């Protein structure tokens, strides 16, 4: 019986290897293929951003896929920066982010 193929939308070989190891350890009989796709960044909550990213990726690959999206929120900042962590770090850096947190 042929194993099903699942596309992991990433250009990061380390992330691909990690997903393959996790699924193999869990006995998931899938072939994981990677595909690097530049997806637009949407505005929304971490859940909304993740769902839309995966929905758009599935349309492009023409089938089931998984995506990965990183989010980091601080209670002291009411959940910010959330899914915008990459933008926040680019604009204020790690030192700038730490000065925004209460001491």
From TrEMBL:
It comes from the Eukaryota. Keywords: Hydrolase. GO terms for molecular function: nucleoside triphosphate diphosphatase activity. One of its GO terms (cellular component) is cytoplasm. One of its GO terms (biological process) is nucleoside triphosphate catabolic process. SUPFAM superfamilies: ITPase-like. Belongs to the HAM1 NTPase family. This is Inosine triphosphate pyrophosphatase. It comes from Rhizoctonia solani.
């Amino acid at each position: 019986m042929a194993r099903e193929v699942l596309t992991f939308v990433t250009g990061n070989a380390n992330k691909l290897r990690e997903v393959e190891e996790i699924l193999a350890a869990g006995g998931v009989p899938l072939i994981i293929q990677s595909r690097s796709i530049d997806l637009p960044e949407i505005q929304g909550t971490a859940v909304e951003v993740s769902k839309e990213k995966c929905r758009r990726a599935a349309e492009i690959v023409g089938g089931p896929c998984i995506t990965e999206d990183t989010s980091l929120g601080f209670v002291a900042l009411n959940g910010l920066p959330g899914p915008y962590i990459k933008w926040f770090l680019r604009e204020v850096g790690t030192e700038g982010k730490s000065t925004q947190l209460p001491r």
